[in-house]
């Protein structure tokens, strides 16, 4: 989850988010270099007045400031396209979960298990126990096994929603009448929080997402107990 006064991304909990963090750092360094170079040119021109009033054109300068930005764009675009295709690629997921957005809660359905479906409501502030987070904790978390490719099918029952978990590098729109899909894999056990990221009405801020990643054996025990409960 996010921390007070946080400036950067949340700690990556999936390979996809790790790639996004690396690309962010790569692009930020390019921006720093360009900004520093432009600032140097401006200061040099102001302080030393390096101007040539008799130069009407310069083919060399024209070539440089045309080719150099093109090279910079290629250096930034190629890693971006690589990550885009990696995040869109879905190969043999071990588990498929359907996420339905409602006003104002989420419903989950595990398609690989019979009768395993539940609603996930935000835990009211007065019901929180010590250690739980206000506006982020839910009564039923979406439980998944670690180190396993997970496919999430996302849609909505009423209005536009968005299923987003920053630590996993996921943000996918939930559109009524349309089925979107995304995939991810958690690198370690933990609880990862998110929120609806599309304004969906009065209680938009009160439909959080909680994804709990556990070892495979614990997930099998949980799924068995949930099926018996249902």
Automatic annotation (TrEMBL):
UniProt-annotated location(s): Mitochondrion inner membrane
InterPro entries: CcO_II, CcO_II-like_C, CcO_II_C, Copper_CuA, Cupredoxin, Cyt_c_oxidase_su2, Cyt_c_oxidase_su2_TM_dom, Cyt_c_oxidase_su2_TM_sf
Cofactor note: Binds a copper A center.
One Pfam family recorded for the sequence: COX2
GO cellular component, one term: mitochondrial inner membrane
Membrane topology: Multi-pass membrane protein
Cofactor: Cu cation
GO molecular function, one term: oxidoreductase activity
Leader sequence residues: none
Catalytic activity: 4 Fe(II)-[cytochrome c] + O2 + 8 H(+)(in) = 4 Fe(III)-[cytochrome c] + 2 H2O + 4 H(+)(out)
Domain Cytochrome oxidase subunit II transmembrane region profile, chain residue ranges per copy: 1-91
GO biological process assignments: ATP synthesis coupled electron transport
Family, as annotated: Belongs to the cytochrome c oxidase subunit 2 family.
NCBIfam families (alphabetical): CoxB
Record protein name field: Cytochrome c oxidase subunit 2
Gene it is expressed from: COX2
């Amino acid at each position: 989850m996010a921390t007070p006064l946080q400036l950067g991304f949340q700690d990556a909990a999936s390979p996809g988010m790790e790639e996004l963090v690396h690309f962010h750092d790569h692009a930020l360094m390019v921006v720093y270099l360009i900004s520093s170079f432009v600032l140097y040119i401006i200061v040099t021109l102001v302080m030393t007045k390096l101007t040539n009033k008799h130069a009407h054109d310069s083919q060399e300068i024209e070539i440089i400031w045309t080719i150099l930005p093109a090279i910079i764009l290629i250096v930034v675009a190629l890693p971006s396209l690589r990550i885009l295709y990696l995040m869109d690629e879905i190969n043999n997921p071990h588990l498929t979960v359907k996420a339905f957005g409602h006003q104002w809660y989420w419903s989950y359905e595990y398609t690989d298990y019979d009768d395993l479906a539940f609603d996930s409501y935000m835990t009211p502030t007065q019901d929180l126990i010590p250690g739980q987070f206000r506006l982020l904790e839910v009564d039923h978390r979406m439980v998944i096994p670690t180190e396993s490719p997970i496919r999430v099918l996302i849609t909505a029952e009423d209005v536009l929603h968005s299923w987003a978990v920053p630590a996993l590098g996921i943000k996918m729109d939930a559109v009524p009448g349309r089925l979107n899909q995304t995939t991810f894999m958690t690198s370690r056990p933990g609880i990862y929080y998110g929120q609806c990221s599309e304004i969906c009405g009065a209680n938009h801020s009160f439909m959080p997402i909680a994804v709990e990643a556990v070892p495979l054996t614990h997930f099998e025990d949980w799924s068995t107990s949930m099926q018996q409960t249902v």
